Amino acid sequence: LLSPWGVMLDKKNSSHIFATVPTTVVTVNMEPGNISKFYEFSELNSVRHFTQARDGDVFVSVNHIIYKISYFSRELTLISGDSALGSADGTLLEARYNAPHELQFLTEYTLLVADMKNNMLRLTDLSAENVTSIEVCQSDVPSCKPMSVLMTNDALFVGTSTTSIQKFTSE
To answer: What does the pLDDT look like over 147-166, one tens digit per residue?
Structure first.
């Protein structure tokens, strides 16, 4: 496997992992040498980051778009965004992203997107079908870009390009 950008355990089959390489999401059996394509994008697209929903579907950020790849049928569905970059909130199809960097499910239907070049997090509500922005960096720190997110039972951690980790709690 050549320089994977991301790796995660397959929640539906613990003997497999998912990995991303520039244009492809692959599944890897824990046995050496057993790699198969899960989904391949065109050469012009770059798979950035991905996460897996409880039902097994894989959500990926490609350019400025969030897609869902069905776990069983491998069917691709556009979830949110457009090839044109932007920062608009709104319905899933009206919303615009600028380099969505990492994806993390907060709940079964709420996807958190680290929208790196917009310097914010984006709450993508799949049931209400809308996207809203959350500021995580102070406006006087323009180089602060959210790059990674981690949700625990009691807090949300956001890693930024300024090498800081910010902790958010419900308190």
So the answer is: 777 777 787 788 777 767 77
CB atoms within 10 A of CB 128: 13
Give pLDDT tens digits for 22-36: 678 877 776 666 778
What CA–CA distance (Å, rounded) separates 114 from 34? Answer: 32
The whole-model pTM stands at 0.82
Instruction: Provide the residue type at 154 as one letter.
Output: D
Q: And the tokens for 95?
A: 């919303």
Q: Which amino acid is at 88?
A: A
End-to-end Cα separation, the chain, in angstroms: 43
* 37 CB neighbour count, 10 Å cutoff: 11
Establish how many alpha carbons lie within 13 A of residue 80's alpha carbon, considering only the half-sphere containing its beta carbon: 33
Q: How far apart are CA 151 and CA 137, in angstroms?
A: 18
Backbone angles phi, psi at 25, to 5 degrees: -100, 125
The letter for the amino acid at 42 is S
Residue ranges in the chain modelled with pLDDT below 70: 1-5, 22, 30-33, 43-44, 137-143, 163, 170-171
What SS3 state is found at 107?
strand
